[in-house]
User: What shape does this take?
Amino acid sequence: MACAALLGLGAGRSGADGTGPLRAGPPATGLGQSAGGAASAELTAEVAAAWLEDPARHAELVELLERGARAGAADSERRAAVTILRAVARQAVAGSAIGGSIVGIEPGAATEVRAELAAALGSVRTPGAAGALLAMAQRADARATEGGPAERAVRDAALAALRRLSGRADLSADLPAWRGWVERVRGMDQAQWGAELTRGLAGRADTQSGTIGGLVGRVAEMRRREFLNAAPDQRSGVLLEVLGDDLVSLRRLGLELVSRELANARSVDPAVIERVGAMINDASAEVRRGAAGVLAAAPSITADGIPARVRQRLSDETDAGVAAALLTAAARWPGPELLGPAARWAAVGEASGPAMMAAAEAVRNGGLPTPEQRRALLDAVRREQLAAAPAAGLALLLSVGEPSDAQAVRGLLAEHEPAVRLRAAEALLGAPRPMYAQWVLGAAGGDPTLFATALGAAVRLGLTPENWAQAMELPAPSFAARREALSALAAQIPDAARLPLATGTPEPWLRDAVLAPLAQRATAGVPDGADGLAPGALVEGVLLLMRTRMAVGQPASALLAGETLAWATDPPARRRIDDQLTLALLWLNRPEEAAKLGAPAEVWLVGLELSNAMPHAEELARRVRADFAGRLSQEQLDQLNSGWPEQPRTEPAAGLGATTDRERAGPPSPAKPPAVAPAPGQ
Assistant: This one.
């Protein structure tokens, strides 16, 4: 047959248009002769594949196969046959006409064509093809001793085609097992054969999927190790490669590695974040979701186009899970343009909560929803029981809802579930109206669950003495929780308000927490009053802090606080400061330093009473008598003698220990309460 006819050049066709069936030509002319006698082009894989899709060409293909497969065929005919067989082998399922013809070709085929025939038979997928492949494998196996590698190659090709045809990779190269299988399927009808193929091919697909998955897993692990072992300045390059990989699993790995870097507070190259920003348009929903998660977690994003890209992706997105992640990321840029996507997703499953959060942020930042957006957002919150609404949903009710919505949220403060009450309190506290904070503060009076939130409400309303007193009276879950929360609240008090609030604080530890920042402030010198803290108020605050610490037995801390007022030179204030410093120094047994401050006798007597239980008290009493001799009033002498009677000093006898005045005088009379100026509430 002329090859020109095969390639559609017109020779050998019937019909005026040249589309009729190809007629057989004399074998002697060979495949390489055209109608004009010139050599024609070789049959290509593309032409063979196209002819296999055209039923009108099947008869011609069969004829070419039969000619090229026989022993003694010309080289051009054999090459054409091999090209056709390989095209058949690439098909998932070969056509019945071609398949039936191939089944009958093998017995007389040339050795060099039989392996190609076997591969093509793997696409035929009929019991007859299975039988032909088994026969081919058996004949080749029998000839293997004499035929050598060529016959073994045919046998192996036939067995491989059997495994491909049937999916029964478990039978491997076991010829007896294949004989049993072929015998079993030989008499099956079409339905039974289809079920058999389905089972076998499904099993093969699972096996191959596992194999491919294992290979991809190993590649992913290699890239992971490459990243972890890379020098810090090379990690960004590895990440960019992995994020741009063709395999979805590797792109997911790249996102995982970026997320881990962010979680470990490591800096990530802006180029990597920009690449992640482009991945929100990935074909894989899982990749888009991961990319959005990275954008939400990144501490800073410098690429200008990412916010707009996220909003555009939200407009096009159809997957609720991806939309949820995108909305979380978009909440970083809560402009009014976010309200449209948020309203669209507010009632859609997994995206509902993030949509409400994004909308609430947008409204908090000045966004005003259109009537349609407002209706969609409120409907999404109201469609279920209010107690199940997220905090962002409650915030939307309070910001764009009706007055009845606010009252409904207030009603949640009386719900049985603590989590519901807390969620409502936080939503009310985040709303702009001070009245809502007052609702929270009032509800917390009988609810320890709301303690911490109520303290925030007190700050919101302004820490007046009245609000501070109310906050101190609130019930807390535990003493530790109360102490921690009130200490944190004390740290937020403006310096100008510390003295008035401390004056009404009965508990020493809390008063100390309120006043301690004033000692730190005093180290900077005289305040300029810009924040409302006058120098006199600062002095009074530190003095109250000193008295508070002395009252709880902390003279060293009191001394440290007083030393911050070295700049105070106003005579009355200086005298009071030095008197408090004297008390602390005497308690600490540092009388020489105390004497330099020039405090009067009554201060020393108070210091002596404070030191009553200390080992140095008796020596301090003798010093008071000596230093203030002739200057003590009778009342002061009586006070001194009542605690430390004056006794003549006696030298110890030889070999005997000394006897102190205190031991000779017997136990002292009960000491009076310390005469240190009491702190408020003491």
Remarks:
- Residues 506 and 682 are 7 Å apart (CA to CA).
